[in-house]
Amino acid sequence: MNHSNFQIPELVAGIRNIATLNACKDYVEAVYFSLDSLSLRARAKDITKKSLPEFVQLIHENDLKAYLTINSVIYPQDMEELNNVMDIAKSSEVDAVICWDPAAIIKALDNDLKVHISTQANVSNIESVKFYHSLGAERVVLARELSLDNINDIRKQTTIELEVFVHGAMCQSISGRCYLSSHLLGKSANCGECTQPCRWKWSLVSDDGTVIDLNGNYLLSAKDLCMIEHLSELVDIGIDAFKIEGRLRDSRYISKVASSYSRALSYLNYDDDYSINLSLLKDELSSVYNRGFSTGYYFGNSSKHNFMIEHDMNASTTKKKAIGIVTNYYNKQGAALIHLQQGSISLGDVMVIEGKTTFLEQTVNSIVIDGVFVEHAAKSNEVGIKVDQKVRKNDIVFKLEQNQKSFN
């Protein structure tokens, strides 16, 4: 079906620093991120109140919208910090604040900031949507537990912008409102400190103390959401924005997922081989970090097929192996000097170079040792390699390898 008469949704990617911004800036229309406080991704500490103005300016220079996430529970002791963050968000000219706690909503609106209601609010019906719209919200990120029929019903009854998740980790609890980590380790998921107990290998113990053999299965680990093959259904409904989860994932993940969904959306307008292209794109998504894929609740209630019980945290078809660091970059030659501290490299290998502001993935086309071109360089060598873009001293160099544990 040709969707040229439909508005293509805004593609929104989660980022945590300049490197992940650079990884997705060519594929998305907006990015969302958090500070080192008041977020469910408290481990993403690269962006601070001090650095926020410059970071937002960089986002805007790339013609992207900047959405600041403030989605943790706000306790009495957090109110002063909330006020400070909102003041800085206003002066930094963020395009919207993603929040759900009424205190955060009120403070954002008091600062004349646009409000997007976070999925943490678990908005699951039209009356809830109307409620937040009446408060002044511009957009609602719907609950991840909704089906396509549920979403279509809501869309028909409101003009507010609607956003849905299309890719990324799924939580065991309602819209991520989980207490398991807090109960077990005193680390609250609702304040950004989730230890992810649902990804652990658990045991079943009967009333008489007998331990039941689970053959190494992971009972509570949900597969990642992947809607790459079903975007057309969401476009037909009239969704305004598609969200990619992954503020703690690496730059390669952000780049691969953002580019795949960007291409999938572009295919909607003209490609007769849409299903074939989507299959190829799903293969690409499988090459980066994932826990297996499912369509979540979009096509009805979740089932046992939405759990990745057979595998641990990463089911990607490829994995990154750290092999060294960049020790120098030569601008005129477009080459990096790399110390192979942990592994070897050969012509034809795919390498990834990452740093605080760097992301590069490319095939190795030249290797030089002491002025001599070679086909292979062993561990401990210092080599010169042509690179497609600027890299920086102390950037980490990886080599891509096949992951023998992968499945999908």
Shape: globular
Mean model confidence by pLDDT: 87
Q: Based on the structure, what is the oligomeric state of the protein chains?
A: single chain
The CATH topology of the largest domain turns out to be: TIM Barrel
- Per CATH, the superfamily of the largest domain is Aldolase class I
CATH architecture of the largest domain: Alpha-Beta Barrel
Model regions low in confidence, pLDDT < 50 over at least 5 residues: none
Distance between the termini: 27 Å
Question: Rg, please?
Answer: 23 Å
Q: How many structural domains can be distinguished in the coordinates?
A: 2
Classify the helix fraction into a percent range. 25-40%
Keywords: Hydrolase, Protease
Protein name: U32 family peptidase
Family: Belongs to the peptidase U32 family.
GO molecular function: peptidase activity
